[in-house]
Design a protein that fits this description.
CATH superfamily of the largest domain: Crotonobetainyl-coa:carnitine coa-transferase, domain 1
CATH class of the largest domain: Alpha Beta
Radius of gyration: 25 Å
Protein name: CoA transferase
Pfam families: CoA_transf_3
Shape: elongated
InterPro entries: CoA-transferase_III_domain, CoA-Trfase_fam_III, CoA-Trfase_III_dom3_sf, CoA-Trfase_III_dom_1_sf
GO molecular function, one term: transferase activity
Largest sheet: 6 strands, parallel
Keywords: Transferase
Number of helices: 18
Oligomer: single chain
Strand order of the largest sheet: 5-2-1-6-7-8
Length: about 400
């Protein structure tokens, strides 16, 4: 069994116990953030198979690298919630937990006998956070939904597409399950807000993937409401400020340059050895640069193509122009800033060996980013939770295991 590593000075959520009944991404991502901050997270999974994410992505000997991060710092137990004995154990876990985060299909927990009233009867001051596709109410509440659907309905997938007329390919995905992660972060906020409120009869939060995505869409909705204008995809650009885009380099890379204030643009023109561009009526101020962005970006791209990515990045950094190579995973792993702040760190995983992990966010001193243990095996903490926390004896636990309850 993995042993917890003490963090110097402690972590802000030490002493908080969170029960997770979740799978895939949104709820488990939320509890990973809470666990990274010191909460004792007990993750309930089906016996034998566990969370399907354990099998996602690249793996070694059946152990997925992503799981090393996705399940880290959690205590994983197995429990068959369809069995009477399994539901009895869940009651005991609920009674000893401060918060519950779940993302089963809406109503599934209720059908198992654990509606909000029952949960709050077992733990009167508990914070309950339900994460679902469309929320617990409304005409779509019962429909199946994943993060990608939330991104489509919330408007993000439309805006992350190429600019209109440039391709007939499908709208571009961000590259990670961003809708799930956004909903997970809102679930973290819900848990912490509910705990802060100190309500004597608990708090119940309802987080919808679709609404989580919609909430970050900046001025898209008010602009439409006020003017009838539908914001269109802008590719790598920012439609309201120029120049901001990724530009090609001599070695086939890309460097993102954000010189979109008048002062920064003037500095960029000097770095490009084209100071006259700053006084050109086409580019004199931001509105002009936005109107003539195609011509402007062509000028910048002609310059960037003469330099390799690293030297270009160095030139721009010396001029203090916001810029960066477009990083790959290899670039991230080698980055001095990330490594200095322990945002990139090697973690010992008993199943995979050394695994490269991202650190936790936010940081409460460098030691707070220390990963206490990598994602555990299915049921790895059964004995610790059921015997040490709930008081079952070994024989009872072994019988429950033989009967498929845990």
């Amino acid at each position: 069994m993995s042993a917890s590593k003490p963090i110097a000075g402690g972590l802000p959520l030490e002493g908080l116990r969170v029960l997770e009944i979740g799978h895939y991404i949104a709820a488990p991502f939320a509890t990973r953030v809470l666990a990274d901050l010191g909460a004792e997270v007990i993750k309930v999974e089906p016996p034998v198979s566990g969370d399907p994410v354990r099998q996602w992505g690249l793996a070694r000997d059946g152990h997925a690298y992503w799981w090393s991060v996705h399940g880290r710092n959690k205590k994983c137990v197995t429990l068959n919630l369809k069995s009477k004995e399994g539901r009895a154990l869940l009651e005991e876990l609920v009674a000893r937990s401060d918060a519950l985060v779940e993302n089963l299909r809406p109503g599934q927990l209720r059908r198992l006998g654990f509606d909000d009233d029952r949960l709050l009867e077992l733990r009167p001051n508990m914070v309950i956070c339900h994460v679902s596709g469309y929320g617990l109410t409304g005409p779509l509440a019962d429909r199946a939904c994943f993060g990608a659907i939330g991104e489509a309905l919330g408007g993000l997938r439309y805006l992350s597409n190429h600019t209109p007329g440039t391709t007939d390919l499908p709208p571009v995905r961000v590259g990670v399950s961003i809708g799930d992660s956004i909903a997970g972060l809102y679930a973290v906020i819900a848990v912490l807000a509910g705990l802060w409120s100190r309500a004597p009869h608990g708090r119940v939060a309802d987080v919808a993937l679709t609404e989580a995505v919609l909430s970050i869409m900046e001025g898209v909705l008010p602009e439409y409401g006020g003017t009838g204008t539908v914001r269109e995809p802008s590719g790598g650009r920012i439609s309201t400020a120029a120049p901001t885009n990724a530009f090609p380099t001599a070695d086939g890379g890309w460097v993102l340059i954000a010189a979109n204030s008048d002062a920064l643009f003037r500095i960029l023109c000097k770095v490009m050895e084209r100071p006259e561009l700053a006084d050109d009526p086409q580019y004199r101020d931001n509105p002009a640069r936005c109107r003539n962005v195609d011509a402007l970006e062509a000028e910048i791209a002609a310059w960037t193509r003469r330099h390799d990515a690293k030297s270009l990045e160095s030139r721009l950094a010396e001029a203090d122009i916001p810029s960066s190579r477009v990083y790959t995973a290899a670039d991230i792993a080698e980055d001095l800033q990330f490594n200095t702040r322990k945002m990139v760190q090697w973690v010992d995983d008993p199943r995979l060996g050394k695994v490269l992990h991202p650190g936790s966010v936010p940081m409460f001193g460098a030691s707070s980013r220390q990963v206490r243990w990598a994602g555990p095996d299915v049921g790895e903490h059964n004995r610790e939770v059921y015997c040490d926390l709930l008081g079952l004896d070994e024989d009872h636990l072994n019988r429950l295991s033989s009967n498929g309850v845990v």
